[in-house]
Structure formats: structure tokens, C-alpha cells
Amino acid sequence: MMKMMKLLFGTAGVPLSATSRTTESGIQKINELGLDCMELEFVRGVKMGSEKAQVVRKIADNLGVQLTVHSPYYINLNSKEPDKVKASKQRILDSAKIGALAGAHSVTFHAAYYMGMNPKEVYQIVKDALLEIMENLNQTNIRIDISPETTGKLSQFGTLEEIISLAKEIPGVKPCIDFAHLHARGGGKPNSYNEFMKIIELVKEELGSFALKDMHLHISGIHYGPKGELNHLTFEDPESKFRYKELLQVLKDENVSGFLICESPTLEIDALLIKNIYRNL
Ligand SMILES: [Zn+2]
Question: What is the pLDDT of residues 76-113, one digit of tens each?
């Protein structure tokens, strides 16, 4: 994909202040607000058709708004039921196909649940499924980054190490790093400049400095419990202890570029907040 040379800021889905809930009006709002990108939320199913995707692409191109995609939540590449695994693969393929038609750069998804199994076994199962998905995408000439996400619950596959390892082993797969999820599943860590820096350094060591150049990233405040993520919060919610400003400083110091998608409940308000903080660092 085309390399974005700076860090772009946007929302997970249509901004709340958009005139209507359509993707088109969301992209227009992103542009009006002075934001840069938007994630197409296919989280309850890929309902966008091919024609609509091409309309979306034109509008986004005209306004210079970049797009990413979030696949449906109902994905578990480690389900014990073969039908569910098959449907999960199809949901990723459909998201990739429609996302690519819309001109999106990257598609992210929560790959699997451990289902009480040994994480190493689950890794192998997820890896095999992704290899099959990549083969299918290559055959059909669909070009979009496939970016499994670091997840927030301990029951979910998707530690930083697992996600980086998939990206290292499978050509075309890249990490989507959700920093708030890592903070939640780590029981409050990472949460400092040095700890966030270690994440970036691990990516660099394992995948090369090139991997910092068009990253798919998620950020928000977060509320967690003993099992990890409970819900996303605004950055300044007193319940959230996530030190987002220190993370922004790391992203600036390391010159990380790509798509920083804000998943806070106030979407564009928090996306603008971090964009302004980042600009003044
Ligand atoms: Zn996600």
C-alpha cells in the first residue's frame, strides 16, 4: 500500500456530529473537522456492497480522507465448529474485498479466542487460517494490509508478541496495535513513556523500522478488570488511567506514521484532542 509519511488522526466509524449516520457523511465530517482518516466499522457485518464501496472511495479521494476497516466482531478462527471457522474466514475476506474497493489501507479484526487451549496451539491454528486467507487474497488480486489486532481480554488471542509474530511469519500481514487493549490485558501496563517505547522497539527489532511507517493503531481511554478490557472510555475520564500523552510523545519521537484511530466514546472530540496535543509536542 501507499506509504503515509505522517501520523494521521481519525475516528472508529462515522463521527457523532455527522449530519447522518452514512459513511459518506462521516467522511465529509472528518474533512470538515480537520481530521485525516476514518475506520469503516463493519463490526456487525459487511453490509456495504461493491458499488457503494466505489462511491465511498471517490468521496474519500476527493476530500483526501484515508480509510481503514474493522471486520465483524463475530470472528473466531479457533472455533471448535468448522462452520464458524469458515464463516470467520469469509468475514475477513469480505471486509478485505469491500475495504480494498473503498480504497482502505488496512483491515483489522480480533482473530480468535483461546477456548481454554494452549496459546501455542491456537497460534498455529490462527496462522494456518491467515495463510489460507492471504492465498485467497493474492489469487483474487485484492490488495489491502491484513492486520490482526492486539486484543483487550485475556480470553482473546492477540498478545503483542502473537500479533508481531504473525506479521513476521506471514507476508502481507501487519500488526494492528491497540495500546489501550494492551494496557487493559496487562492489568495497567504498559502505561509509561518507557513501556510504550518498548513496544515500538519490539516492532522495529522484529519487523524492521519500515514497519513503523504505515501502522494501523487504535487508542482510547479504557476501563479494565481482572479479565482485561471492560469498556472504552474518553481519555480524560477519571476511571481511565491510560497515559495517552506519554504514548503520543513516543509516537512523535519515533516518527511513527500511519493511522491512529480513536475508539473513545466521544470519537471526534477525543481524536481532535490528541491531534492537537501531538501537533504541539
Ligand atoms: Zn478492535
Answer: 999 999 999 999 999 999 999 999 999 999 999 999 99
pLDDT in tens, 120-178: 999 999 999 999 999 999 999 999 999 999 999 999 999 999 999 999 999 999 999 99
Give DSSP secondary structure letters for 163-212.
Answer: HHHHHHHSTTB--EEEHHHHHHHTTS-S-SHHHHHHHHHHHHHHH-GGGG
233 Cα to the center of ligand 1, angstroms: 14
Question: Measured between alpha carbons, how far is 23 from 273 in angstroms, rounded to an integer?
Answer: 22
- CA 59/CA 73 separation, integer angstroms: 27
CA of 149 to the centre of ligand 1 (A): 6
**pLDDT higher than threshold 90 for residue 4:** no
Q: What is the mean pLDDT of residues 4-11?
A: 91
CA distances from 82 to 21, 87, 88, 128 (A): 35, 9, 10, 14
146: helix, strand or coil: strand
Q: How many residues does the chain have?
A: 281
Q: How far is the CA of 280 from the centre of ligand 1 (A)?
A: 28
> Cα of 13 to ligand 1 centre, how many Å?
12
> Which domains are assigned to the chain?
7-279 (3.20.20.150)
**Could you tell me which residues are beta bridge partners of residue 225?**
228
The Å distance, Cα 178 to ligand 1 centre, comes to 7
C-alpha of residue 221 to centroid of ligand 1, in Å: 14
Q: Tell me, in angstroms, the distance from the centre of ligand 1 to residue 130's CA.
A: 17
